[in-house]
Amino acid sequence: MTPEVHNLLIEAAKWRLLGLMFEYPAAGWRRQLETLLPDLRDETLLNIASGALEHATEGLHIALFGPGGSVPAREVTYLGGVQFGYLMAELAAFYEAFGYQPSTNEAGDHVSVEAGFIAYLKLKQAYALASGDVEHAMVAGEAAGSFIKEHLALVAEPMLVPLRDFAPDYLVRAGEILLELTGPSPKTVYPPGGADDDEELSCGPASGAAELIQLDPR
Predict the structure, then answer these.
(1) Which listed residue, of 47, 64, 73, 203, carries a Cα 20 to 30 Å from 54's Cα?
(2) Is residue 133 part of a domain?
(3) Is residue 111 situated within a structural domain?
(4) Taking Cα atoms as reference points, which of 24, 42, 25 lies closest to residue 180?
(5) Distance between CA atoms of 44 and 176, rounded to whole angstroms?
(6) How many CB atoms lie within 10 A of CB 9?
(7) Is 25 within a domain?
(8) Domains identified in the chain, total number
(9) Contacts of 172 (CB under 8 A, 6+ apart)
(10) Is residue 71 within 8 Å of residue 65, measured between CB atoms?
(11) pLDDT digits (tens, 9 = 90+) for 125-165
């Protein structure tokens, strides 16, 4: 295993952990988190996982992230003036292009689903590099970078504010790491390109997602 592949696997584990932190702790959630522990090489990440295993409950999740909860965890919440249909179509195009099927029933714009998608792309990139498929590794890497910038970066910073006000420490730290990975929230322009109010808006997927190379979802 090359150092680059090794680092990508570590990144994938980190993103998977972040996704699990904001995912509803349904049956199997605890098992998935425990299975991930050996892949977490950072003490901070291990402490976050330990905190979740000790304190996470369905009730806490609903109070924080459920309908009317203290911490909105869906991207659409933080996008002023965005067309909901356009956002969901763009996300669906990304997921379909790479064969991503979330392990949770959360909406496609939920931070747990989006973080899980980045973990999935990192695994895709690592597998492609290990197989000598540089082109597909590049596609997966570029898609991950674009998705973080265009979607997760819009959520991480504003979501951290209510997390600090209402969430336990392990979730606050998870939110801080998410922000470290995404960078601050950029000013958003939706749809991309900044259409005028009188201009007819398309609800189809963004061109960037539509033109991605279809990867075998192995």
Answers:
(1) 73
(2) yes
(3) yes
(4) 42
(5) 11
(6) 19
(7) yes
(8) 1
(9) 160, 163, 164
(10) yes
(11) 999 999 999 999 999 999 999 999 999 999 999 999 999 99
Check residue 31 and give its pLDDT: 96
Is 49 contained in some domain? Answer: yes
CATH number at residue 80: 1.10.3480.10
Crossing angle for the helix pair 153-166 and 169-182, to the nearest 10 degrees = 160
Chain segment 6-45, per-residue pLDDT in tens? 999 999 999 999 999 999 999 899 999 999 999 998 999 9
Structure-token match 């590099």, residue found? 129
pLDDT of 210 strictly over 50: no
Q: Give the Cα separation of 179 and 112 in Å (integer).
A: 14
Share of residues in the chain with pLDDT > 70 (%) = 84
Mean pLDDT in residue range 168-177: 98
Phi first, then psi: give them for residue 65, nearest 5 degrees.
-115, -5
Residue 86: domain span: 3-210
